[in-house]
Design brief:
Substrate Binding Domain Of Dnak, Chain:A, Domain 2, mainly alpha
């Protein structure tokens, strides 16, 4: 799944190693989501300062569209795992985190091109 591990990925791995109970896995996924969401927002703000105005407007439009798509995916994920029990909640959180992770990594790549 994850080919190039980031510092955030390593933090999540460490949390999972420290507590492999269902509760620990849920806590790791919650923290992972928070870290990736913060990273996405950090990189997005950095791009706002580096991109020329026309490219920034394009990115804003793309980001708004991504948010709509993300929310739709989250609804599907929630329905998928609604009756899956405690491990389903870990999987639900993991899937949500991965969506945000992918976008953050994508924006990181864009920022690195600047």
């Amino acid at each position: 799944m994850i080919q190039d591990k980031t510092d955030i990925d390593r933090k999540i791995d460490a949390l999972l190693e420290r507590d492999s109970t269902t509760g620990g896995m849920n806590a790791a996924m919650i923290e992972g989501y928070r870290l990736w969401d913060n990273e996405l927002n950090r990189v997005y703000q950095a791009l706002s300062k580096k991109l020329p105005a026309s490219q920034w407007k394009d990115l804003q439009k793309e980001q708004r569209a991504w948010i709509v798509k993300r929310d739709a995916k989250f609804k599907l994920i929630d329905r998928k795992y609604a009756t899956q029990g405690s491990m389903g909640q870990v999987d639900r959180r993991s899937d949500r985190m991965e969506i945000v992770r992918q976008r953050a990594v994508e924006l990181r790549r864009l920022l690195s091109l600047r």
